[in-house]
Write a structure and sequence with these properties.
It contains no helices and 10 strands. It has 117 residues and is mainly beta. The strands form 2 sheets. The chain has a 5-stranded antiparallel β-sheet with strand order 4-3-2-1-5, with no helix packed on it. It is elongated. It starts with a strand and ends in a 9-residue tail after the last strand.
Amino acid sequence: VGAVIRLRNLKANPELNGAVGAVISYDPQADRWTVKLEGGQEKAVRVDNLYVAPLKAGSYVRITGLKADAALNGMMGLAEAFDETTARWTVKLSGGVRKAFKEDNLVALQRAGRDAD
């Protein structure tokens, strides 16, 4: 939630392919993400129809999808650097704690959240 996305591969509404928006919620029963597009329109789409912009150093992120350390899911932090040898991002969490995460477990936030310091 909060990630900036671009829509892709829509068959029912191909005119929306390439549209930019932000994820606002998830409906587990329908297995659809609700996105608010530029201009205010809301659309429920499958994850296959979303493209999340790649992370870069300095991006604010939300941790998601962890199984072994699920307590960290939902936390926000600052992506500091990508380690190519481990294929993980170093993320600075609140309190200054740094942890390494796979990019699949990070969602870039649309705007700067509170500082992770």
